[in-house]
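Hey, I was hoping to borrow your eyes for a little while. A protein chain has come my way and I'm curious about its shape. Take your time with it, there's no hurry, and the full record follows here:
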Amino acid sequence: MPGLGSGPLVVAAPAVSPAQTVVIAVPPPSGHELAASASATTWVLTAFMLPSAVATPIAGRLGDLLAHRRVLVGCLGCGPWSLWRALSLSPAC
């Protein structure tokens, strides 16, 4: 039974896997609907996965230096901010 301190991990683990799974399944149908080439849809997939691949070891190192829980909670805090920016009507500055 997980302890009370594992709450952020319980939230973070199920959030990452579906996001990556959806992005892998979306390019072929959306590429066909938008008349995009296969290479263009592959770049969309790469553009989504590359920041995650870069951020994972950086977050791990920061966790080693600062405490894993603090870094995980900080990363989870980026989610609402990203959603707010995605739904805002004004372009990013």
About this structure: The chain has one domain: 14-85.
